[in-house]
Design brief:
CATH topology of the largest domain: Aminopeptidase
CATH class of the largest domain: Alpha Beta
CATH architecture of the largest domain: 3-Layer(aba) Sandwich
Strand content: 15-25%
Number of domains: 3
Structural class: alpha+beta
Oligomer: single chain
Shape: globular
Number of strands: 18
Length: about 600
């Protein structure tokens, strides 16, 4: 019998009910708790199954959208190569729609939550990073294409005075610069994905996209840097004057060739005129350098760097070349210039592909396919050469430079193609720009178009440069190639080998060509042989041992300049001769950029990345 408790008594014990077998039944509270756990567990399972199903749907949705977008992007890339703005603008809405669908999928909360998973999360995160990056690039592509179309439309009618309408250009800069910045940001984001952690099906397209974006991001970054300076450089704030320096690649110098001709470009609110054109022979050698040389400059180049205007391009730092040329120009003419622009014959030939053939005073015509031979070979072999004076060849060189300038300035040919060729030439190190205005020069030096190998922010880059040692015009027959091999990206000291291949293939009767071609040097080489000084620069802070030449080693002048180890050796090649040089340099940040002399067969810039 259970006696109810009264006030002050202890609570009575609860007697567990017995089941039919007489055993106490399970506690009610325990059964209830287990039911709740079971229900919660079932709910979690249902939610996970539903989430997995939803995520699978989103993955499928994103995959279909990205595949469709990829087809559209491929078409846009082809339209870009074809310089077809109309096709680019037509393809953009479709790509935009597909990326919007993909972006909606990867922005789903379930997708975001899935990115924390240990393995699947890496796959989901990579797809989201790629989708967001492409979506953001395409988001600014429309305004940028419209702006480019407006600028090009404003210049469809050729101008006889070299006038460039600045208004449309200035208005177009914000969307163009926004697009360049977005491409740079997208490249950085996608470069942060490690393909090694992805499935093979995903790793391959991610690695391909990383490479494609890196190829576009560098030029876009340079264009953005130059674009911000462009209005001022084109005289929006008042008249400017620039020296246009044409480099002659038949006689190599580090910057691409000897200074062949010079002209003054006067720019005022977009109107560009060419005046006071002179050949390099108008500037005879000096008894002392036009500007004081540093001990390193004197050791590497000797004082001829500052005494001969033709040799001003021997330094790998274009701002220094420009300063030497501008100082010499001012000493002779009394004119101070606001900057210097240098280019070579290869860049001029590519411009002719955009403008079409150009007539040169005297009745001749130059084309993209004939210009290099006409200026760098025929002018010296076929035109009169008397008493050490090659005035006829120098005059043709100057006339061709002026004719091409006027063709570009007057709007001849395809404007978009002209712009593209100029951008390509700048990427290849064939167009360099220096400004005497400090703020502008800082911006130029930060980009590759400034050519500031020593004075700019390029400490991790290496360099291999060529200077003719024959004092002739035999480099027309020289084939050069600079590559990077044996790159290691792991371990405490990643390195790469910079390789230079030289091949000299003149005609069999080269020894019978004029002395102005075969060389005036006192090196003692047999007539028709080619001497080339090879100068290698390491990244800042690195050391450099003897250079490898074929299976052996060779050494020469060794010094340091601005924290870089430098070595100069001389190559002697007989007709038909070949040589291969190699130098080992450190790799920083998973990539190596090598600056070199732009020649008739090799560009002046190349970047190699780990895994690229």
């Amino acid at each position: 019998m259970i006696v109810p408790s009264t006030a002050g008594d202890e609570p009575a014990a609860t007697v567990e009910p017995a089941d039919e077998a007489g055993e106490p039944a399970a506690p009610v509270v325990g059964r209830s708790r287990r039911r709740r756990v079971l229900v919660v567990g079932l709910v979690v399972v249902v939610v996970l199954v539903a989430a997995a199903g939803w995520l699978a749907f989103r993955v499928s949705q994103a995959g279909r959208a990205l595949i469709a977008a990829q087809d559209g992007l491929t078409a846009m890339v082809q339209a870009g190569h074809d310089r077809n703005l109309t096709a680019l603008q037509a393809d953009l809405p479709g790509v935009r729609a597909h990326l919007d669908a993909a972006r909606q999928a990867v922005d789903d909360p379930v997708w975001r939550a899935g990115t924390v998973l240990p393995w699947a999360g890496r796959q989901l995160g990579a797809v989201r990073t790629v989708t967001v990056a492409l979506d953001q690039v395409v988001d600014v592509a429309g305004p940028a294409l419209d702006a480019a179309d407006t600028v090009l439309s404003a210049h469809q009618t050729p101008s006889s005075d070299g006038h460039v309408a600045l208004g449309p250009l200035v208005d177009a800069l914000p969307p163009l610069l926004a697009a360049a910045d977005r491409i740079d940001a997208a490249s950085t984001a996608v470069a942060g994905i490690d393909p090694a952690g992805l499935t093979p099906r995903l790793a391959a397209p991610v690695a391909s996209l990383q490479h494609q974006l890196s190829q576009v991001a560098g030029p876009a970054r340079s264009v953005a840097q130059l674009g911000r300076l462009l209005p001022g450089l084109l005289g929006s704030d008042g008249p400017r004057s620039y020296l246009l320096v044409s480099l002659n690649s038949a006689e190599l110098r580090t910057q691409g060739g000897i200074v062949g001709s010079l002209a003054v470009l006067t720019v005022d609110h977009g109107t560009i005129t060419l005046t006071d054109q002179r050949t390099a022979s108008s500037f005879p050698a000096l008894d002392a350098p036009i500007l004081p040389l540093t001990p390193a400059e004197d050791a590497i180049h000797t004082d001829v760097l500052g005494r001969w205007i033709q040799n001003a391009g021997m330094t790998p730092d274009f701002p220094r070349t420009a300063q030497l040329v501008a100082a010499r120009w001012q000493a002779v003419t009394g004119q101070h210039v606001d900057g210097v622009v240098a280019t070579d014959v290869v860049a001029a030939a590519e411009l002719l592909r955009a403008t079409g053939p150009v007539a040169v005073p005297g009745g001749s015509t130059v084309t993209a396919d004939t210009l290099v031979r006409q200026l760098l070979r025929d002018a010296y072999v076929l035109l009169p050469y008397q008493d050490g004076d090659n005035a006829a060849a120098d005059a043709l060189y100057a006339q061709a430079a002026a004719a091409i300038f006027h063709a570009v300035g007057n709007g001849q040919g395809d404007r978009l193609a002209v712009v593209q060729e100029l951008v390509t030439a700048a990427q290849q190190g064939r167009v360099r720009v220096w400004s005497s205005h400090d703020a502008e020069e800082r911006g130029l030096a930060a980009s590759t178009v400034g050519g500031a190998f020593l004075s700019g922010a390029h400490a991790a880059d290496a360099g291999v440069f060529l200077d003719d040692g024959t004092s002739g015009k035999l480099d027309y027959y020289l084939t050069t190639k600079v590559t990077v091999e044996g790159m290691t990206c792991t371990g405490p000291n990643p390195t790469a080998t910079v390789r230079l291949d030289l091949s000299y293939t003149p005609p069999a009767d080269v020894a019978s060509e004029p002395a102005y071609v075969t060389g005036l040097s006192k090196s003692g080489l047999p007539t028709g042989w080619l001497a080339t000084n090879v100068t290698v620069y390491t990244p800042v802070g690195a050391t450099l041992g003897a250079l490898r030449l074929g299976d052996g080693y060779v050494s020469g002048t060794s010094t340091t300049q601005d924290g870089r180890a430098v070595q100069v050796v001389t190559s002697w090649l007989p007709p038909g001769g070949q040589a291969t040089y190699r130098a080992t340099v450190p790799v920083h940040g998973g990539s190596l950029t090598v600056w070199s002399t732009p020649t008739l067969t090799s560009n002046g810039m190349r970047t190699v990345t780990c895994g690229g």
